[in-house]
């Protein structure tokens, strides 16, 4: 898997450490490939990335029910027993996903995720794939 440049990894760490209760941070492509992770192993990050691809596709289908707007995923939040899941658009065909404990400050998490996307969003773009090849 392609990893973010080492100079950018600290930003994922910064997000995780700036919001108490953050467990895992994953950056992924729209088609479910892990770009980078913090606070988790590669297998878990890959499973989260694959699940997020389906979730972002589902959110676009739901957004199409609104009469106006661009129908793009901006933020999905799931509350489950044990914690919260956040998925945010982070650039063209790239997403930022976070798993957090039940006691996480949701407002702080949203703010820190938006700040991270603003800082490195253009670096999180995933080029489209054609016949298994990355188009550059």
Structure characteristics:
Roadblock/LAMTOR2_dom; Beta-Lactamase; two-stranded antiparallel sheet; 7 strands; globular; 136 residues; Mycobact_SerProt_Inhib_Rv3364c; Roadblock/LC7 domain-containing protein; alpha+beta
Q: What's this model, at a glance?
A:
The chain is of the alpha+beta class. The protein has helices at 6-18, 42-63, 106-120, and strands at 22-29, 34-38, 75-80, 83-89, 94-101, 129-130, 133-134.
Query: Mind telling me the CATH superfamily name?
Result: Dynein light chain 2a, cytoplasmic
Report the principal-axis shape: globular
CATH class: Alpha Beta
Please state how the strands of the largest beta sheet are arranged side by side: 2-1-5-4-3
Assess the beta-strand content as a share of residues.
Answer: 25-35%
Parts with pLDDT < 50 across at least 5 consecutive residues: 1-7
Helix segment count?
Answer: 3
Rounded to an integer in angstroms, the radius of gyration calculated over CA atoms is 14 Å
In whole angstroms, the N-to-C terminal distance is: 17 Å
Under the CATH scheme, the architecture is 2-Layer Sandwich
Domain Roadblock/LAMTOR2: 9-100
Protein name: Roadblock/LC7 domain-containing protein
Pfam family, one: Robl_LC7
């Amino acid at each position: 898997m392609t990893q973010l440049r080492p100079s950018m990894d600290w930003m994922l760490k910064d997000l995780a450490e700036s919001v108490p209760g953050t467990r895992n941070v994953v950056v992924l492509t729209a088609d479910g490939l892990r770009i980078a992770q913090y606070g988790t192993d590669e297998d878990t990050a890959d499973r989260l990335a694959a699940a997020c691809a389906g979730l972002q596709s589902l959110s676009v289908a739901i957004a199409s029910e609104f009469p106006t707007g661009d129908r793009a995923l901006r933020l999905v939040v799931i509350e489950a027993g044990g914690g919260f899941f956040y998925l945010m658009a982070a650039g063209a065909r790239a997403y930022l996903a976070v798993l957090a404990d039940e006691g996480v400050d949701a407002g702080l998490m949203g703010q820190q995720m938006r700040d991270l996307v603003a800082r490195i969003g253009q670096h999180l773009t995933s080029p489209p794939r054609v016949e298994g090849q990355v188009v550059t």
